[in-house]
Every structure is written in C-alpha cells, then in structure tokens.
Amino acid sequence: MSMFNVVFAFLASSFLITAVPTKYTCRTGHIHVETSNRFKDIIADNYQVYSELNPNTGEVSFKGLLKSFKFEFGALDQAFNSGRVDMSQYSKFNFEGKLTNVGSINFDQPGTYPAIVDGFLFMGSYKRKTSARGTVEVLPNGRLVTEADFSIRIEEESMQTINKLMKQKLPSVMSLDTDKLGISRDIKLNLKAQYRPRN
Amino acid sequence: MKTVIKILAALVVILLIAYLVVMNMPQATVKSKEVYTEISAAELFNSFSTDEKSAEKKYLGQVLQVSGIIDEVYPDEEGAQIVMLKNESGELVAAVTLETSETKKIANYNEGDPINLKALCSGMLMEVTLSKGVIID
C-alpha cells in the first residue's frame, strides 16, 4: 500500500467518524396524550417539546411545559390556559432515558429501525420509571424521525393526592372525587419528533 | 302543580343549554384577551434566566405583548408557524407558536425584521416559550 493510499484511508476514516453527529436535537416534538373519564375522553397535544438524542451513547431526553398543552375539549383548554390555574410548582415535565438497542440502529443508513427506550419521567418531585417501544427513521438528508408509545398507570397514592386537591380546590357541596368522575388511571402518550443533526 | 312542572322544565332547558355551551366551548385564544404587560423578548428571557420561579409566578398563563427581532420562522408538527426571536446580540430568547390564522401574515416578515406579538406565556425551555400568538400590526 502506497503512502498516498494510507493517508487517503486515514482521512476517509476520519471523515466517516465525524459523519455521525455527536447529537440530534428537536425543538418541535409532539406529545399526544389520551385519557378518559365518565363524561368525556380527554385528548391533549403539546407541539413545543424539546428533545436530544445522542447516537453514540443512545441517551435520549425530552422536556416540555405543561402550559403548552392544547386540549381538544375547549372548556378545559380555556381553564388550563388561563392565569387562574397555577402551574408554577409543576411547570415542566422531562424524560431522561436510553435507547437500549442503539447498537442496532445505523445512523448512516437511511431506513426505519425498531427502538426500545428505558428511562425516567419527571414532573416536579414525581419520578417514574418508564419504557416504550417505537421506531427511529433515518432520513436520506441525515435527519431522524422518531415515534414512541408510552403507557402510564397512575398509582393509588397519586389518585388520593388528586382527590385531596379536588377537596381543597372545589366547593365542598360538589363532593367530587376521581371515582365519581370515573377518571381512568391509564394515560396513553405518543411522542413524535423530527431531529436535526448537531455537532 | 302546573307551576312546579313549568319551573322544572325551565331548569332542564337551562341545564341543557349550559351543558351544550360548556361542551362546545372553543379552545383558548388570546385575541379577545387583555394584555397583562408589554415586554421585550430579551427582558422576558432575562427575567426567567435570573429567577425562573418568580418569573413563572408573574408570567405563566398570562397574555403578554412581546417585541423582538425575528431569527427564524418554521412550522411545527401541526403546521403552525413558530417565530424564533433573538436579542440584539443574536442570542435566541423566545419561541412563539402562532395561531394557524396568522400563517399568511407571518409570510410578509423576513429574518431580522422587528415584530410585535400577543401570546400566552407557557414558561421557559431553551428559550421563553409562548403559544397561541397573534401578530400586532
């Protein structure tokens, strides 16, 4: 092998090493939430989710603001987006986790790859281990499109906290609780994000 | 007896109307809402960067009139336009998602143009995040 070939091979391999960016970021992630109660299914969307994905370590995170949720049910949307609902204690949610099968995703090769995510969802002091299955699509332009479905079950003690809050905030004559309202303990989340490569 | 029936019937009608009004309420909009305060995007960002908790108490869920310089405009997953605002030194300070009715209006603006927006403050992510924005001419 001539000296030229050695130098060329070295430069080519350096290029390949830098071809995969150190991270991918997304400012416009979309979270779709669905849950139900006796009267109406509650559907909400948040289109202002920030997310980062590290293709080398598989670390993935997303964070968003509770006030950015848009509720399909207009009355709830108006109440939630008013200054009357104080969200300053729980203004944000975030997820920190890892793609456990990152080794099987070729970020250089356009295509759709299955993905498994494990991590923790945080909201205020609330921390919950969460996992999801989804896909990572590598686009020919180097961007990524990811989609994952999460399912969260609210524990009994959290339902009791909600009941306590309802007692505090609602007039006593209403005497409502989560059972009377038929509030489901299961919440379905779908996360979609389109990432741009960043170095 | 007839009077009681009439009162009950009136109550049922009132409850039915109230139910229909609540179930068909439109989503929140800032168009008809009063502005809590006028502030530049840079000042708003400084306020959140300095003391996020106190800024949240003051601005979260409030309708603000925000001024700034356009850095970039791009669509979100829903197709609504996001206006990224920067300060004088080019640092990104606010991301305002516009109502879909503003899509045509924002097409008349270019990067570097000053803009005035009325929007709902959602809090701080990488920048101060505002939603349901409308352009003030």
Structure description:
The complex is a heterodimer of chains A (199) and B (137). Chain A is of the alpha+beta class and 199 residues long. Chain A has one domain (19-155, 186-198): Lipid/polyisoprenoid-binding, YceI-like (Lipocalin). Helix content of chain A is 21%, strand content 47%. Chain A is elongated. Chain B is of the alpha/beta class and 137 residues long. Helix content of chain B is 32%, strand content 36%. Chain B contains 4 helices and 6 strands, in the order αβααβββαββ. In chain B, strand 3 and strand 4 form a beta hairpin. The model of chain B has no long low-confidence stretch (mean pLDDT 91).
The gist of it:
The complex is a heterodimer of chains A (199) and B (137). Chain A has a single domain (19-155, 186-198), classed as Lipid/polyisoprenoid-binding, YceI-like (Lipocalin, Beta Barrel), CATH 2.40.128.
Structure classification of chain A: alpha+beta
Tally of discrete structural domains of chain A: 1
| Beta-strand percentage range of chain B | 35-45%
Amount of beta strand of chain A? over 45%
What is the CATH class of chain A? Answer: Mainly Beta
Which spans of chain A of ≥5 residues are poorly predicted at pLDDT below 50? 13-18
Estimated helix fraction of chain A: 10-25%
* Total number of helices of chain B: 4
Number of strands of chain B: 6
- Low-confidence segments of chain B, given as residue ranges, are none
The mean pLDDT of chain A is 82
Biggest sheet strand order of chain A reads 1-2-3-5-6-7-8-9
SS element count, helices of chain A:
4
Helix content of chain B: 25-40%
Q: What is the overall silhouette of chain B?
A: elongated
Largest interface: A-B, 34 and 33 residues
Mean pLDDT of chain B: 91
Write down the CATH topology of chain A. Lipocalin
Query: What strand line-up does the widest sheet of chain B have?
Result: 2-3-4-6-5
CATH class of chain B: Mainly Beta
